[in-house]
Request: fold
Amino acid sequence: MERFLFIYNLLAALSDGRLFRSLFSTLLRVLSVALIIYLIGDTIERWQEIYYGNEITTLFIGEMIRILSGYAVIHLMLLRAAEIHTLSNPLYTLSEVITVIIRLSGELLFIITLSITITTTLQLLGLNVQLLIPELAKIISPLLEHKSALWIGVAGTGLSLLFLVAGHFASELLEMILRLSRNSEPR
Reply:
């Protein structure tokens, strides 16, 4: 009869935060593995283009930017998944998980924006590097016509830093609110 009465165990897992910690930690790990598989497949496909292409150096530079940014994204996701898994406060589990997710979002936006900025700036300077996402070429191509490499480089770098600061700031604000609420509880 006990095996049919699972609601109590489910409520206990929800109350102490185990379910949320496991869910978000596992989700980040699964997304990391999916990104690894995608990057390996896409890298093999692009290396064939590089091998048979004429502009080996420029395609190699674009591919290295993509691989390094992909590695940084995967590593960040795995580190934040481990951080979520080790959270231990049962009172504010979801708030602490969201704090880590907000911080991760700022860091991911920083890496993605910076790598797109570097790739676009290199294209404006005359290097024919492939974009990280081929569909992005449709969006960026109008910008490439204006030959504004310096403007795109500075604005993109500034925007990526803004994303990083905003993510960490929002995370710190939520942590501060959590600390205030913990300190105001009766002991």
